[in-house]
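Bit of a strange request maybe. I'm writing a small parser for structure token strings and I need a real example to test against, not something I typed by hand. Could someone generate the tokens for this chain?
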Amino acid sequence: MPHTLASLAHHSALKLTVLAGEDRLDTPVRWAHASELIDPVPYMEGGELLLITALKLDAEDPATARRYVRRVAGAGVVGLGFAVGVNYEDVPRALVTAAAEEGLPLLGVPRSTPFIAISKAVSAAVAADQYRAVTEGFEAQRELTRAALGTEGPAELLARLAAHLKGWAALYDASGTVVAAAPDWAARRAARLSGDVGRLRERPAPASSVVSDAEGDDRVELQSLGTGRRARGVLAVGTGAPLGTAERFAVHSAVALLTLTTERSRALQEAEQRLGAAVLRMLLAGEPDHARAVAGRLYGGLLDAPFRVVVAEPVAADGAEPGDAPPALDALADAMESAAARTGEAVLAVPEGARLVVLAADGGAAVEACAEHAAVAQARYGGQPLPRGRAARAEAGRSGAQLAVGLSAPSGPRDAAHAHRQAEQALSVARRRGRVLVEHEDVASGSVLPLLADDAVRAFADGLLRALREHDATGRGDLVASLHAWLSRHGQWDAAAADLGVHRHTLRYRMRRVEEILGRSLDDPDVRMELWLALKATAAVAEPYGDVPGE
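Reply from user aminoacidic:
Good idea to test on real output. This should exercise your parser:
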């Protein structure tokens, strides 16, 4: 316990008497200091017992006494010790009254008790308190270490930490999800801090913050876990008062131990990544049996059940280097790996340059986390496709939607290469459509028209149709609309002419003019196909993500 004025007043060797402020004797004393300055406040830090003889102070003048007492009390001085029989035979009544009015404890110091004796008593108490705090801190460290090495993992460590702090503790994973809490009710309290945890995770580790909310009457401190660029988790502790020395020591020990358990060594991480990359290469090379043999038990039953392949890459602003965007891939990998860890399922995540390739169990938590992560990013644009162009992509980067993801259909180890191609195809469509996530099933069941919304395709279409549009601009006929009607009616003259409201001979004349201007025959099916796609591509400029009106 910290040394207080009461313990000094009850110290038999000091023989102090309490003259005012009896109800505040439980105030802790940080130090004892003697000063005869008229204004000692500039030299005070707060928490001191100020010892005086009133050598220069007119302690018998009520106004002077009130100003002095009010001044030192405002500076955080916790009490006055007045030497009796030095400059005054007794403690002046004006000083006693001023201290009582201010509520500042006033202790009478007999002539037989030198100020140095009081300073030594306070110093000894402070040293004893610090020793006790260090001893308790070391004991807490031993208990937490035993818990960390036990079979129950972080849960037991958090339970012992909460007991030591007489509060609660919670652990968040790299995605910001509460994975353990002690006592059990603390999980609800910790869940309300997800926003604060998210903001802390955005800062480089190590980082900390103190937070509170309207529903909680405790003081909550957040500590990030990890030694690298990104936090691997967050520890939250809630207490009824600021942490003392012993409690602070325990929290720091818990942070160190949890960092060791949540962030594996760099060498082990690199080795596992190399192994995962080798397993993926074998699967893509059509060698599933070798992949199983190399993987061993590292990836559990992932290769024995249907899985999905995820291929993701960053969507950076024009001119940005590829290295500017990997945090988006890191966030996706964290979300999927954290979800898999919570359910005990295996997941294989392999960085491939500026891409991320993930194998995850079909219908599992990791695939669901991928979809949720993509939905959150897409929701920043109200569910609409991401805008295009330099400024739009820059805005996408600032808002966090810096990702395009392709998801394959369910597959097995022998079809891993095919699933990888499916995921790459879905990724290509995601980038073209401006979507965060596209599943291969959506590509297979959807229309080919959205695939035409590409700069190269539109440039080809504009070049192919330019001569016809220039002809129409002179007012000498509507060749583009006529060509569209004729192709849409599969070359049926009467039906196409009826759509246009012209005679079929007029339509025949216009089609001959198309052939003359383009220098190509409409009898060639390849020419008809190219012209039809060109018409659709130019129409897709106005309707890039939906069907063309009238179709």
